[in-house]
Amino acid sequence: MMKKHLAISALAGWVLLVTGFMILARTLDLEIFFVLWLIGILVIVELVSDHAATPRYLRFQRLVIASGVILFGAIVARKILEILAR
Amino acid sequence: MRRIPALLASGILILACLLLIGLQAGSPLLYSPLSDPGGGDHANPAAFERVRGDRAAQLLPLISDLLDSPGSLVLNIRSGDFEYAARDLQEYRQVSRNLDSLVINLDMTEGEITEFRKANQQNLAILTELFNGTGRWNELQTLEIRYRDSGDSQMLTTITYEGEALRRRIQDLYRDYLEQDQVMRGTGEKFGLDTTGYAQSVVDFREIVSRIDRDQHEKMTTLQTTVTPGTRPYRLTLGIERQRVSYLDTVNLEGLLWEHRKDHPDEVDLFIDSRKVASIPTKPDGSFSYSHLVEHDRAGTHTVFAAYSGSVFSEIRTFFVETSGTSLELNPPSLHDRRVGFEGVLLAGSTPVRFAPIEILAEGKRAGMAHTGEDGTFSADVKLSPGNHKVNAFFSADTFPLIFSESATFEIFVPEPSPGIAGEDGLLANPLYAAILAASLCASGVGAFLYLRRQRPEIPLPSPVFHLPGENAAKDSDDEDLRLSDDGGPVAGVVPSAGETYAGDTELVGDLSCLFSALRLAVGRRLTLLYPLSLTPRELCAMCRELPIRAAVCRFAKSYERAQYSGVSVPDNERDMIAGAARSAMEGLGGIDH
Amino acid sequence: MILVLFGLVAVLSHLSSTTLEYSRYNPEWNGTSRLFQDMIERDALMITRFHELPAGGDSLLLVLAPGEEFAPDEIGLLRSFLEGGNTIVLVSDQERENLLISGLGSTIRIHHANLTSIDRYYDHPSSVLAFPAGQDPLGAGISRIVLNNPSYLEGGEPVFASSILSWVDADGDSRLSREETLQRFTVIAADRVGDGVLYVIADPSIFINGMREIGMDEGNYALARQIISARPRFIVEQGHSRTAHAPEAIRVVNLVRESTITKMAVITLIFLAGSILVIKRREET
Questions:
Q1: What is the pTM of this model?
Q2: Complex ipTM above 0.90?
């Protein structure tokens, strides 16, 4: 139970940190925010899950991360196209 | 019960968040200073960058330098210090170039500064030509002395003629230089700069011109006295049909070579501005004619003379090229696929201007180039950044006897190219873009799949602290199985091996666990379980609920647990019962197995 | 718990601020919240009607970005205030204020125009630099100020002027065109009226938050400080000024926030909550 709460608050803290820096930089960009969130959740899930066993509440997270990776690919493609179209 | 509303509420919140994010997905940039540029009162300073370097502070010193440079340059030319003059000219050119780049940097391609810049460019051209011209003039002076000493009257005539052309050219230059005076001095005075250097340069220039005038006049009179036409066997005359011409007019030059031999066609060289332009064969009667097309001749006076075999000269004739105005017509630009097509025509009066460079300007900055064709038309395809543009065409008339001209300005809107990924036509129409999109999506899909299927590195199990009998059983489970089912001896095959390691009270416990291990293994094999060793007695019982031996296994499990974990020694009768249960379970399994 | 606190702070700051241009409750780049923070620290007197103007000749009245016209009786009050030896600083780029200025007996005139210059701070035509001109004490010790889309002034004694490389960009293409001439333009002018001095500043934007963040060494901040402390008493007009513009709710929230009683209540509450937490922890162990 402790581990689960720790993971959630770590992720929340990370996201708040990212938001805070974005506000300081006066630029709110969903794309950057999404990528940083993805990195955060990847690291946290890796740290939380043991080598031998993955807690049940993380099963679903792996699917979320997988779809996040696909979305990330889409963002990269979009950026490349933007640069090409310039 | 209390969890359901909480789940419901968080579910709704998550959906709402996803919806809000989804609404923004099209333009993921939520806020940046650039998206909040401010209204009419003020602009958001956070959106701008600091000006690099103090560009404005460079401008006035630069203008001051440009006003001073001609002063020392002309003075050096006047006093004949050509080495210093060359250095001055080099510096002057450099400073002028600095001003050009600064004017472009400061976005001041129109207006007063540009007037100044144009005047200065003219001055630079004028002074360069003055430098070259006076250099040649001085050369002619030395040559004249040499030819006069050697009595070579032919060469003396040649250089005197060249000197005459040079004199007229330098006079023209002086006139041009005076034309820039007002702009140059006016700008300088406006910015509170010292213009005495520039004023002095005008005085010095006039000095140079009058000195050359004087010298040339002297030479012409000596030439006429020393070289008399009567002593010559041949005489050459030259005439010009029109004295004043303009762009694309032809200057018809006609002449006659007197007393030439009929059987032998001669060649006459024609010089315009002391430069040989043609060698013309004479007709049988000795006449010759040449048509000069005025195209890249500068405006002003040009000198012409003819020479025969380097010794017979015609008199010097002049013609005057007038500047004519031009009109640059630009058709409304057409837009196709982010490129803007420009078409138009450049005319000087009603004559089309051929092979002239046309600049396409967007917001006054050069965006593209075009050249006019034979008929004066031009067309260009220019790529412009998205947004509104004020475009026009410009003809700068650098090498033409024409006045620069500018077309009307058109406003054109170049649409933003459609970025985004949501299957626009333009996006998928371009195979490259589609390929990039597909490749990226495939790569990320593979990445996601690999992430899901990734096997974490196997960590070797910690080696057991002591050797459990069950593991022994696992190693030779095959023969154990057989023995158990064949002779029906309850623990016969296992007990000795366990008995060897454990003694006393533990022997019984060892017995029982051996039994349990064997049974568990057998059931595991029967049900093809992956990890039978991890089953507890109760789980074993639960696993067997589909099998006929369920009752026996469960009975065994229950008694085994009691015997194993109660902490008291097991009475004999109970031990028998456990063994019996195990045996019957094994028999049940064995029966089906074999 | 922490998240809830975060949320509360966010909601409170949202409720107590606005995005109206020049508003003192606007902490964004186009507000004047930081200028007013300074003024409040200097115990500035905020007045909404000119009847409240104090007698005596030792005050400076700042009229920053008026949003509406002044009534004739108000102009009369202001004029007698000015002639009594006080100083008025009028900050506006609207020609509407010429009525007020002439009513005060000054010859300064505001010309609403798109003044731009090669001497810039940011790489944008709006960001014009102005330099001190003349010997007025207001410009003492300030090397330059940064303007933001300024207008220009005529008449009076120039205090700050743009450089000679400035022009009025009439056609709005932000480039020097053929008809546009380079010239020095006055952006801050002073005029003596009676015993008092009227200053007119042709660009209210120099006092917005975004322009102040340009840096402590820049003149904008120094100029604001100089104005605040020029005379013994500093008065800020809040009846017409756009700096006072804000929705009513925000005013109420700010009134509550700024009053001493609420501050004390909040501090007490925080201490109470803290001590309760500590006591609970003690009981648990």
A1: 0.62
A2: no
